[in-house]
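Task card 7
Instruction: Convert sequence to structure tokens.
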Amino acid sequence: MFQRLRSDFRLSIITLLGLSGFLGITPFAVLRFHQGDTATGVVDLLILCGVSAGVAYAWWTGDTRRSGLFMAVVACFGAVVVAGLVGDSGLFWLYPSLITSFFLTPPRIAIAINVTAVGLMVAQGDAFSSLEQMGSFVSTVLVVSACAFVFASRNEDQRRRLEHLATIDPLTGVKNRRAMDEELEIAQAHATRTGISCALILLDIDHFKKINDEYGHYVGDAVLVDLVKVLRKNTRKSDQLFRYGGEEFVLLLPGSDGPGLKTVIANLQQLLRNHVKHPGGSITASFGIAELDWGETVGSWLARADDALYQAKESGRDRAVFAEPRIRVVPQLA
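Output:
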């Protein structure tokens, strides 16, 4: 659980804000019922249920966007209803709700929610004791929302940059090994759920160290970049390419198997020979291919592809080796 919170920023924010909302609203809900204010107590209870449901949905599905939007709407419009029931003392609940919406949803959506909530608050008018109080409230809310918008926008931009740096290989522009681990887990789960085949290709540039030693790392880097361009141009949009490390790359091909997969491999081998060159001539690559077996783990799947790549290099390089399916032990009846 803690690992998931550390790796998923939006889920951690939703969980923290949900817990804060629960701890902050619960005492007031209890107090409302104790004082006989049943209507406001019910509203507080509904807000608590909505916040709890949003957190539970985020944990269950991993969909933090829908759950965040739902929680922001519940918090803001719930605060509007509470203010209408209890008067100006309920105005204070809208401030944290408006700020929270910027953590739960993208800044522009948060602005739309906040403007709508404030508009409804002003339209009903029951929460204000005077026009002067209404004007002061609207002014302060606008200032708070503007500051929160600037902060949230900068934070969102920085988060995107950090995610990019954490998951993209800076030289080739393809996803790195960290991103690969996540995508393989997703692909394995999808294949298990749908039964759609999925293939994993490990490819390694032959004699790449020799290229670096003889012509320099600048030439070696250019070879890597050219190889990525060829692979990207000649694979489907649904296929994914990752830099596994050094001169090794991983291709994830959903919906590929059998003869069609062999044709794809042969075509890629020929394209690399024809279009990726260095001062000493063309490059070649060795391929290790593993089709995902039913019920197989990502670790086993990747290990079989790696073993196949090792066999391809040991048997002369510039060839493709398909991994054998896992050995299935069939239990015998006594």
